[in-house]
Backbone:
């Protein structure tokens, strides 16, 4: 049982691509081997910046012999058919065998494929894997045509068994496989021979290469921890950075440095972001002061001066970077303290979307909307409006220009510097949230108001200009915005009539979008030749101001209809996202459909409470049977109404009841109806569920003993009308026809 | 940085790079005599990266980025600065080692520094060009850009050129241990008349910053842009044969006009008269010119077409 070892040695592989490349190499090679009939026991893939390595253990020595029999044409078949069969099987005529078959004599071919040695198969599979490797981006180099992520320099490919290691013969674009590799680029650059994976990993370690990325991560983590401990500091954890840094070094050497005092007043987020983004430094926090006071850089080399030169260099670069940051911070604070008028003015020239105007236009809309939403979520309308006006001003700050990911975070600092109350400043920071399904949802009322307004403006805006998501395309992240609206509304439990809010906002937007369209058209007129321009301008202006009152009224009617259609469409998009959200929470999609089919579905809190209560009831035995009863009642009723052409909806009278079961159902409904009505009015859905669940037994008993379609028309009509009471009771809760099972 | 081998001035860094790359067999060219935004614009890179002919050149290229002007006050930013550019086609297999040799030549010993190749793909929308490579970090500072050209002017590069670009001021400041570019010794500090970078460029940075940001006549610049664009198109459209029947396509004169248009666009951008939406359109216009020049160059002898 030989083991295989493969190493693809190249110039530096981007850190972010290494994890997937390991998986791809393992998958492509092992699948290829298995497909060719070569089994193996286990496989493992590793990477450093300069190498991708795969070890496959317990490989079969070769693929098994195979023998396949194929039936061909009759011996008296036309020559062409027989030739075709020979071609297909790759045999000569004398190798065929004539056998008697039901239909006469038929040619049979026996194709024998001898097994192949592992080396031959491995060479083929690796060749294919290298040529078809799915790098996110690949390149050519020199005069060759091979593509790899960066120039590929060497291939190590050996099979090792009791007899020793031998090179698998293989050559790609002039690169012949061998049994040697090299160590660290600077500390151990010479080539050496390896005989198997253990030998390889051990020799690499001596040559200052830690092969396993997990080991490099662990080593960095541990050494950083030690460095921090010595100073009484904590390293700010950052798994993504750790993985990236581990992909940038073959021999990690963490070095700790101190941030100069003059930078310690910068906000911690600024220090952290600048150090991480520009230099891939970890941040170290002093728990006594709560400030970030140090950093760790991970070098790729051990030096005679124990990293002193490297640390000094990094410190210098950091100082230059933080000087920039401090310069931005000081300038930004000055602007913040003077009221941020300049930033507000600047946002007028920043386009949000050419049909939806500038960021300033957008802020204007969000401010109005925040004010409108504020009372619904318990926020002070003045504060909500103020927060909305401030929340995006930091987009013009130098700091956010340098570090876009600090938007909002800087907004909070600047709002505080401007003397705004905490609630307003916090809203500046939090109004973008939640950004993803697992991102925290703001709970402070002012933040919620602005966060909702921000997302509703985005949604209605892109709906108004017909830029809805299609399929996998969602360039404006509208699904995320919709989920944000849903999570905000649900987590605050706010009663927000989304349909109403969206409708009024869409109506506002409509006017703006259309006016902007006219303005663009008017501007376009300027580019026309003079004789056409004046004519065109007149036409555009005629539309900007409705000339006669009648057409104005008509246009208004069209606006209203259009706004209603848009907001209905948007609401159904929100419902779709709600379904996805609730499905993730374990609520069945048919239950959500049944609840959404009810009136009042634009109140998401109501919808979710109903769905949750219904979900719980339907999980019980009573619930399941009740659904059957309600559906049966509905079906019988629908058939009868269909046949008779009337709707049975009123007039069931207990005096026509013949049986106890019938009378019992009347009585049960008399009790249940007001109880359900009251519970629904109070939005006490569990109580409503309990009340309707109590109908299960009487309904079951009724169907067990009573024939609805009696010959007696009076009895029949009475019973159908009784069924309609059942249907009505059900409809108060949900559309049970949509419940499956 | 305490290496005894350390250069003493900005010009010594340049001279050592020149000597090093000359020793590696590169033709040491002189700067292109036009305003460009980066060494890549030199026809020795942009045009010579096209076609099958082998090529190896190194040169200093003064580069202008009007929007980076800071009146000489910022320690690291200049509207006029120098790049050192190396271009070798086909890219040799030991290009990384050759590059590391150049760092040693200017006193950066990779055995005591932390030299790293960090992913950084290069793209020039105005040249219709892109490549893959790295920015090279020395102790956390970017000291060079290292690129394998894949496409120029929309054409696949076959063979592939390897391109190295050193930001000379930043690199030299690091090697010399200087904090502010204007304080950097330009010639030897022990020379009879020692000159700092600031002695030579502080005033020009101020003058150009003022002109770039406030004074450049934008109507005139728009006109220049249109003129360069029209002239480029005219040259590209001219017959390949001259009056005497000689085949002389004029790829380089056309490319000069493309460079000119590109620089004028940068000036207009610095004056803040090009809106975000117009920006893309202007870049597209320059790219169309560069593409036309690349197309024409590929029909010439320098691109490997038999005369």
Residues:
């Amino acid at each position: 049982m030989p083991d295989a070892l493969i190493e693809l040695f190249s110039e530096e592989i981007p850190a972010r691509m290494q994890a997937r490349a390991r998986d791809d190499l393992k998958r492509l090679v092992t699948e290829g081997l298995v497909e060719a009939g070569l089994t193996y026991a286990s496989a493992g893939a590793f990477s450093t910046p300069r190498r991708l390595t795969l070890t496959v253990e317990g490989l079969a020595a070769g693929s098994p012999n195979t023998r396949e029999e194929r039936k061909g044409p009759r011996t008296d078949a036309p020559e062409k058919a027989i030739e075709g069969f020979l071609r297909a099987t790759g045999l000569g005529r004398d190798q065929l065998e004539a056998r008697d078959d039901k239909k006469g004599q038929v040619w049979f071919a026996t194709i024998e494929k001898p097994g192949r040695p592992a080396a031959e198969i491995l060479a083929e599979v690796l060749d294919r894997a290298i040529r078809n490797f799915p790098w996110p981006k690949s390149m050519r180099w020199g005069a060759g045509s091979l593509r790899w992520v960066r120039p590929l320099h060497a291939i190590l490919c050996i099979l090792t068994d009791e007899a020793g290691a031998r090179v698998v013969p293989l050559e790609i674009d002039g690169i012949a496989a061998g049994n040697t590799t090299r160590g660290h680029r600077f500390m151990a650059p010479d080539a050496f021979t390896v005989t198997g994976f253990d030998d390889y990993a051990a020799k690499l370690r001596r040559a200052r290469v830690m092969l396993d990325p997990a080991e490099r991560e662990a080593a960095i983590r541990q050494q950083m921890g030690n460095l921090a401990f010595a100073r009484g500091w904590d390293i700010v954890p950052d798994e993504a950075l750790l993985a990236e840094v581990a992909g940038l070094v073959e021999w990690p050497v963490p070095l700790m440095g101190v941030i100069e005092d003059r930078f310690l007043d910068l906000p911690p987020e600024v220090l952290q972001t600048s150090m991480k983004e520009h230099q891939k430094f970890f941040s170290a926090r002093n728990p006594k002061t709560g400030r970030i006071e140090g950093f760790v850089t991970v070098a790729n080399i051990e030096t005679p001066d124990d990293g002193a030169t490297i640390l000094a260099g990094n410190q210098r670069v950091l100082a230059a970077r933080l000087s920039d940051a401090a310069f931005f911070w000081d300038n930004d604070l000055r602007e913040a303290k003077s009221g941020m008028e300049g930033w507000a003015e600047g946002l007028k020239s920043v386009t949000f979307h050419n049909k939806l105007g500038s960021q300033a236009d957008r802020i204007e809309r969000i401010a109005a909307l925040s004010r409108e939403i504020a009372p619904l979520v318990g926020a002070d309308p003045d504060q909500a409006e103020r927060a909305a006006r401030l929340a995006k001003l930091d987009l013009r700050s130098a700091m956010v220009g340098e570090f876009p990911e600090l938007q909002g975070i800087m907004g909070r600092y600047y709002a505080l510097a401007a003397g705004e109350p905490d609630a307003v400043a916090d809203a500046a920071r939090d109004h973008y949230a939640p950004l993803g399904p697992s991102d925290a949802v703001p709970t402070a009322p002012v933040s919620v108001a602005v966060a909702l307004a921000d997302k509703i403006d985005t949604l209605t805006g892109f709906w108004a200009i017909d830029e809805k998501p299609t399929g996998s395309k969602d360039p404006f992240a509208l699904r995320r915005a919709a989920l944000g609206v849903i999570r905000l509304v649900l987590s605050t439990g706010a009663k927000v009539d989304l349909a109403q809010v969206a409708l009024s906002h869409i109506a506002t937007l409509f006017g703006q979008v259309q006016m902007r369209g006219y303005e663009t058209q008017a501007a376009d007129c300027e580019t026309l030749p003079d004789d056409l321009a004046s004519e065109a301008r007149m036409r555009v202006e005629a539309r900007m101001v409705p000339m006669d009152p009648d057409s104005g009224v008509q246009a208004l009617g069209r606006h209203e209809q259009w706004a209603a259609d848009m907001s209905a469409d948007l609401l159904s998009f929100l419902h779709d996202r709600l379904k996805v959200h609730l499905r993730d929470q374990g609520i069945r999609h048919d239950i959500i459909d049944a609840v959404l089919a009810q009136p009042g579905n634009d109140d998401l809190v109501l919808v979710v409470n109903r769905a949750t209560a219904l979900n719980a009831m339907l999980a019980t035995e009573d619930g399941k049977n009740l659904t059957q009863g309600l559906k049966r009642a509905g079906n019988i009723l629908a058939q009868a109404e269909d046949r008779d052409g009337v709707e049975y909806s009123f007039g069931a009278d207990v005096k026509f009841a013949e049986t106890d079961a019938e009378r019992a159902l009347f009585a049960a409904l008399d009790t249940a109806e007001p109880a359900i009505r009251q519970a629904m009015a109070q939005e006490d859905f569990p109580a409503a569920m309990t009340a309707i669940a109590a109908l299960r037994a009487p309904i079951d008993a009724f169907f067990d003993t009573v024939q609805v379609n009696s010959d007696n028309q009076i009895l029949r009509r009475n019973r159908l009308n009784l069924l309609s009471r059942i249907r009505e009771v059900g409809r108060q809760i949900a559309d049970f026809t949509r419940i499956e099972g | 940085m305490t290496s005894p081998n350390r250069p003493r001035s900005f010009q010594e860094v340049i001279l050592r790079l020149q000597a090093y790359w000359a020793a590696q067999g590169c033709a040491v060219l002189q700067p292109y005599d036009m305003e460009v935004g980066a060494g890549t614009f030199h026809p020795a890179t942009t045009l010579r990266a096209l076609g099958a002919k082998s090529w190896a050149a190194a040169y200093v290229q003064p580069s202008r980025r009007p929007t980076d002007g800071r009146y000489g006050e910022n320690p690291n930013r200049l509207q006029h600065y120098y790049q050192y550019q190396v271009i070798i086609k086909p890219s040799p297999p030991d290009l990384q080692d050759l590059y590391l040799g150049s760092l040693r030549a200017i006193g950066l010993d990779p055995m005591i520094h932390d030299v790293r190749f960090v992913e950084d793909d290069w793209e020039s929308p105005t040249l219709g060009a892109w490549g893959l490579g790295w920015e090279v970090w020395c102790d956390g500072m970017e000291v060079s850009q290292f690129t394998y050209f894949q496409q120029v002017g929309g054409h696949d590069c076959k063979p592939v050129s390897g391109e190295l670009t050193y930001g000379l001021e930043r690199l030299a400041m690091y090697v010399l241990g200087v904090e502010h570019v204007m304080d950097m010794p330009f010639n030897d500090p022990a020379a009879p008349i020692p000159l700092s970078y600031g002695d030579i460029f502080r005033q020009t940075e101020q003058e150009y910053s003022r002109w770039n940001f406030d004074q450049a006549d934008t109507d005139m610049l728009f006109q220049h842009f249109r003129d360069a664009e029209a002239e480029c198109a005219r040259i590209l459209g001219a017959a390949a044969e001259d009056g005497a029947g000689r085949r002389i396509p004029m790829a380089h004169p056309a490319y000069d006009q493309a460079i000119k248009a590109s620089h004028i666009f940068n000036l207009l951008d610095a004056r803040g008269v090009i809106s975000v939406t117009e920006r893309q359109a202007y870049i597209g216009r320059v790219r169309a010119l560069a593409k036309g020049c690349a197309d024409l160059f590929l029909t010439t002898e320098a691109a490997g077409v038999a005369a």
